[in-house]
Protein backbone atom coordinates (compact mmCIF):
# COMPACT_ATOMS: atom_id res chain seq x y z
CA UNK A 1 0.00 0.00 0.00
CA UNK A 2 1.36 3.40 -0.93
CA UNK A 3 2.19 5.88 1.80
CA UNK A 4 -0.57 8.25 0.65
CA UNK A 5 -3.18 5.51 0.98
CA UNK A 6 -1.85 4.56 4.43
CA UNK A 7 -2.11 8.19 5.50
CA UNK A 8 -5.69 8.44 4.20
CA UNK A 9 -6.65 5.25 6.06
CA UNK A 10 -5.05 6.60 9.25
CA UNK A 11 -6.93 9.89 8.96
CA UNK A 12 -10.18 8.00 8.31
CA UNK A 13 -9.69 5.91 11.47
CA UNK A 14 -9.04 9.05 13.50
CA UNK A 15 -12.22 10.69 12.16
CA UNK A 16 -14.28 7.59 12.95
CA UNK A 17 -12.90 7.49 16.50
CA UNK A 18 -13.70 11.18 16.94
CA UNK A 19 -17.26 10.53 15.76
CA UNK A 20 -17.66 7.60 18.17
CA UNK A 21 -16.29 9.71 21.02
CA UNK A 22 -18.61 12.59 20.15
CA UNK A 23 -21.64 10.26 20.08
CA UNK A 24 -20.58 8.69 23.36
CA UNK A 25 -20.24 12.08 25.05
CA UNK A 26 -23.54 13.28 23.61
CA UNK A 27 -25.22 10.12 24.79
CA UNK A 28 -23.79 10.59 28.26
CA UNK A 29 -25.02 14.17 28.40
CA UNK A 30 -28.53 13.17 27.35
CA UNK A 31 -28.60 10.37 29.89
CA UNK A 32 -27.37 12.75 32.56
CA UNK A 33 -30.00 15.34 31.66
CA UNK A 34 -32.70 12.69 31.74
CA UNK A 35 -31.58 11.43 35.14
CA UNK A 36 -31.45 14.98 36.49
CA UNK A 37 -34.96 15.77 35.24
CA UNK A 38 -36.28 12.54 36.72
CA UNK A 39 -34.75 13.35 40.10
CA UNK A 40 -36.21 16.87 40.08
CA UNK A 41 -39.68 15.40 39.52
CA UNK A 42 -39.46 13.10 42.50
CA UNK A 43 -40.11 13.58 46.20
CA UNK A 44 -40.97 11.69 49.35
CA UNK A 45 -43.90 11.69 51.75
CA UNK A 46 -43.34 10.64 55.35
CA UNK A 47 -46.23 9.67 57.58
CA UNK A 48 -45.82 10.19 61.31
CA UNK A 49 -48.44 9.50 63.97
CA UNK A 50 -49.05 8.01 67.36
CA UNK A 51 -51.13 5.27 68.95
CA UNK A 52 -52.09 5.09 72.60
CA UNK A 53 -54.57 3.42 74.93
CA UNK A 54 -58.19 4.53 74.34
CA UNK A 55 -59.26 7.30 76.71
CA UNK A 56 -62.76 8.16 75.46
CA UNK A 57 -65.72 5.87 74.84
CA UNK A 58 -68.72 6.53 72.62
CA UNK A 59 -72.08 6.80 74.37
CA UNK A 60 -74.14 3.60 73.92
CA UNK A 61 -76.43 4.11 70.94
CA UNK A 62 -74.23 6.74 69.33
CA UNK A 63 -71.78 4.20 67.97
CA UNK A 64 -74.44 3.31 65.39
CA UNK A 65 -76.37 6.55 65.18
CA UNK A 66 -79.45 6.72 62.97
CA UNK A 67 -80.64 10.17 61.88
CA UNK A 68 -84.19 10.18 60.53
CA UNK A 69 -84.37 13.03 58.03
CA UNK A 70 -87.80 14.51 57.48
CA UNK A 71 -89.47 13.86 54.13
CA UNK A 72 -89.00 16.75 51.71
CA UNK A 73 -90.77 17.49 48.41
CA UNK A 74 -88.75 17.30 45.19
CA UNK A 75 -90.05 20.83 44.57
CA UNK A 76 -87.66 21.97 47.29
CA UNK A 77 -84.70 20.48 45.42
CA UNK A 78 -85.15 21.41 41.78
CA UNK A 79 -81.58 22.21 40.73
CA UNK A 80 -77.96 21.54 41.63
CA UNK A 81 -76.78 23.02 44.96
CA UNK A 82 -80.33 23.27 46.37
CA UNK A 83 -80.36 22.20 50.02
CA UNK A 84 -82.99 21.52 52.66
CA UNK A 85 -84.46 19.29 55.33
CA UNK A 86 -81.58 19.65 57.79
CA UNK A 87 -81.94 17.64 60.99
CA UNK A 88 -79.76 18.16 64.09
CA UNK A 89 -77.93 15.25 65.68
CA UNK A 90 -75.20 14.85 68.21
CA UNK A 91 -72.59 12.32 69.22
CA UNK A 92 -71.50 12.10 72.86
CA UNK A 93 -68.28 10.56 74.10
CA UNK A 94 -67.13 10.17 77.68
CA UNK A 95 -63.53 10.55 78.68
CA UNK A 96 -63.66 9.16 82.23
CA UNK A 97 -59.89 8.85 82.08
CA UNK A 98 -58.57 12.38 81.41
CA UNK A 99 -57.11 12.71 77.94
CA UNK A 100 -54.09 14.44 79.47
CA UNK A 101 -53.15 11.44 81.59
CA UNK A 102 -49.58 10.60 82.48
CA UNK A 103 -49.23 8.56 79.28
CA UNK A 104 -50.74 11.33 77.11
CA UNK A 105 -49.54 14.54 78.78
CA UNK A 106 -50.00 16.76 75.71
CA UNK A 107 -53.48 15.63 74.66
CA UNK A 108 -56.46 17.66 75.89
CA UNK A 109 -59.10 17.61 73.12
CA UNK A 110 -61.02 15.10 71.05
CA UNK A 111 -62.55 15.36 67.57
CA UNK A 112 -64.26 13.16 64.98
CA UNK A 113 -62.72 12.22 61.65
CA UNK A 114 -65.42 11.54 59.06
CA UNK A 115 -64.41 8.71 56.75
CA UNK A 116 -65.91 6.73 53.85
CA UNK A 117 -67.22 3.30 54.79
CA UNK A 118 -64.88 1.70 52.26
CA UNK A 119 -67.16 1.59 49.23
CA UNK A 120 -66.21 3.76 46.25
CA UNK A 121 -69.88 4.61 45.70
CA UNK A 122 -70.69 5.89 49.19
CA UNK A 123 -69.36 9.42 48.76
CA UNK A 124 -68.79 12.06 46.09
CA UNK A 125 -65.20 13.27 45.85
CA UNK A 126 -66.34 16.48 44.11
CA UNK A 127 -68.93 17.67 46.65
CA UNK A 128 -67.58 15.77 49.64
CA UNK A 129 -71.12 14.63 50.43
CA UNK A 130 -72.57 11.19 51.06
CA UNK A 131 -74.12 9.42 48.09
CA UNK A 132 -77.63 8.01 48.22
CA UNK A 133 -77.19 4.22 48.24
CA UNK A 134 -80.84 3.28 48.84
CA UNK A 135 -82.11 0.62 46.40
CA UNK A 136 -84.38 2.31 43.82
CA UNK A 137 -83.58 5.51 45.69
CA UNK A 138 -84.25 9.16 44.97
CA UNK A 139 -82.23 10.58 42.08
CA UNK A 140 -79.74 13.46 42.10
CA UNK A 141 -79.68 13.84 45.87
CA UNK A 142 -76.93 13.46 48.45
CA UNK A 143 -76.65 13.91 52.21
CA UNK A 144 -74.60 16.86 53.42
CA UNK A 145 -73.18 17.26 56.94
CA UNK A 146 -72.58 20.66 58.55
CA UNK A 147 -71.43 21.67 62.02
CA UNK A 148 -74.04 22.51 64.64
CA UNK A 149 -72.45 25.80 65.65
CA UNK A 150 -73.23 29.20 64.18
CA UNK A 151 -70.54 28.77 61.52
CA UNK A 152 -72.48 25.90 59.88
CA UNK A 153 -69.22 24.61 58.37
CA UNK A 154 -69.55 21.99 55.64
CA UNK A 155 -67.95 18.75 56.82
CA UNK A 156 -66.74 16.85 53.77
CA UNK A 157 -65.90 13.19 53.90
CA UNK A 158 -62.25 12.99 54.90
CA UNK A 159 -62.51 16.15 57.02
CA UNK A 160 -62.01 16.40 60.76
CA UNK A 161 -64.80 17.96 62.78
CA UNK A 162 -64.37 20.57 65.48
CA UNK A 163 -62.13 19.97 68.48
CA UNK A 164 -63.97 19.64 71.80
CA UNK A 165 -62.59 19.81 75.33
CA UNK A 166 -64.39 17.38 77.67
CA UNK A 167 -66.34 19.00 80.52
CA UNK A 168 -65.82 18.37 84.25
CA UNK A 169 -67.69 15.06 83.94
CA UNK A 170 -65.48 13.96 81.05
CA UNK A 171 -68.26 14.36 78.46
CA UNK A 172 -67.64 15.80 75.00
CA UNK A 173 -70.65 16.48 72.78
CA UNK A 174 -70.33 16.92 69.02
CA UNK A 175 -73.26 18.71 67.38
CA UNK A 176 -74.03 18.46 63.66
CA UNK A 177 -76.79 18.74 61.08
CA UNK A 178 -77.52 16.37 58.24
CA UNK A 179 -79.65 17.35 55.26
CA UNK A 180 -80.43 16.89 51.58
CA UNK A 181 -78.20 18.31 48.84
CA UNK A 182 -79.29 18.27 45.19
CA UNK A 183 -76.90 17.60 42.31
CA UNK A 184 -79.63 18.29 39.76
CA UNK A 185 -83.41 18.10 39.45
CA UNK A 186 -84.34 15.50 42.04
CA UNK A 187 -86.68 12.55 41.58
CA UNK A 188 -88.73 10.96 44.35
CA UNK A 189 -87.56 7.90 46.27
CA UNK A 190 -85.95 6.78 49.53
CA UNK A 191 -82.64 8.19 50.74
CA UNK A 192 -80.00 6.27 52.67
CA UNK A 193 -76.37 7.19 53.32
CA UNK A 194 -73.69 6.09 55.76
CA UNK A 195 -70.44 7.49 57.06
CA UNK A 196 -67.80 6.20 59.48
CA UNK A 197 -66.14 8.30 62.13
CA UNK A 198 -63.01 7.81 64.21
CA UNK A 199 -62.12 9.63 67.41
CA UNK A 200 -58.82 11.51 67.22
CA UNK A 201 -56.97 13.48 69.86
CA UNK A 202 -54.71 16.48 70.24
Outline:
This protein is an alpha+beta fold and 202 residues long. It has one helix spanning 3-40; strands spanning 57-58, 83-94, 110-115, 130-131, 139-147, 154-155, 171-187, 196-201. The protein is built from 1 helix and 8 strands, in the order H-E-E-E-E-E-E-E-E.
Spans of at least 5 consecutive residues whose pLDDT stays below 50 are 17-29
Number of strands: 8
CATH topology descriptor of the largest domain: Immunoglobulin-like
CATH class of the largest domain: Mainly Beta
Roughly how many Å apart are the termini? 91 Å
SSE succession = HEEEEEEEE
Q: Biggest sheet: strands, sense, closure?
A: 6 strands, antiparallel
The whole-angstrom Rg is 32 Å
Signal peptide: 1-39
GO biological process, one term: cell adhesion involved in single-species biofilm formation
Protein name: Type 1 fimbrial protein
Domain Fimbrial-type adhesion: 45-202
Amino acid sequence: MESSEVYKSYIKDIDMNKMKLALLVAGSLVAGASTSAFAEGQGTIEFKGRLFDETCTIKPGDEKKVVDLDAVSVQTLTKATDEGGYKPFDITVNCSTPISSTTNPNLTQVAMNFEPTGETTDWDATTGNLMNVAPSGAKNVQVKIITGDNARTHIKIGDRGQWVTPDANGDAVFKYFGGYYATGKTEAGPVNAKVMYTLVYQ
